[in-house]
Specification:
Length: 272
Amino acid sequence: MESKPARVIAIASGKGGVGKSFLTLNLGEALTRMGKRVAILDADFGLANIELLAGSEPDRTISDVLLGTCSIQETFIETPDGLRIIPGCRSNPDIAELSVQHISGLIHAVDELAGEIDYLLIDTSGGLSPTDLHLIRAAGEVLVVVTPDPMAQADAADYISALRSSCGIQHFGVLTNMTRRQREGHTLMEALQERLGFDQDLVLRHCGQVPYDQEMARQSDCSQTLFSDREDSRTARSLQMLAETLNRRRIGYPAPGGMAFFLEQTVSAGGI
Ligand SMILES: Nc1ncnc2c1ncn2[C@@H]1O[C@H](COP(=O)(O)OP(=O)(O)OP(=O)(O)O)[C@@H](O)[C@H]1O
Ligand SMILES: [Mg+2]
């Protein structure tokens, strides 16, 4: 039976703290609730935290997979809805930046999931570290998070330009987060386009706007960041819309000449 290749989406940003982990987790949860099989790779090697946002402490992490002591499936943390999280490694200075061998081991390990998942979401560490660049190149689809903070906007434009020149990526999804007014996402998109100037090959697509959630900002309990329990909130509805938008259409096409495209490459090569 022919199975559909998984989509691999890297959630990235120029500036840190713009909500990548929060959005990755909740986008994953929303897609899972739509019946999709979703895994999240916490690729913030060094300060991984997505599993903590989901309310769990992992027994095993991706570093155990890279050291060959367990399979990728054995690291899974599962939310009650069935979203699978592959925990990143915390406080392991030896593995904060991955070597080329690590990256290739990681891609091999993730390829084991071909046929088991529809989506792999990669929560990157943000910025242009070699690890992030490798993973983004391999992912095929990139979603850049930007907020109304002027620094975040300037960094997003620089970041997109850098990925465009260093990885040859031409299509970017943009997610506007922490907005405070109704059409602020569109205004931010216009400002971003303007900063980037005219480039007929560069395609930015606004995939969704997520409002600033005051209740969440007030909470100290980070397990409250899972929005599936608050379906009636404006934030939950916008996360649901984001999942539907992404599920309808891919963000452009993979960059030409990149490295192995994780599962898609395996599948198109008849790997499953
Ligand atoms: N829409 C939102 N409304 C209110 N608070 C938010 C929103 N999005 C994210 N946050 C909060 O902003 C903070 C930063 O979010 P998060 O850790 O997801 O960012 P990040 O981009 O992953 O950061 P880092 O670059 O450090 O990995 C968290 O406290 C999170 O709860
Ligand atoms: Mg993060």
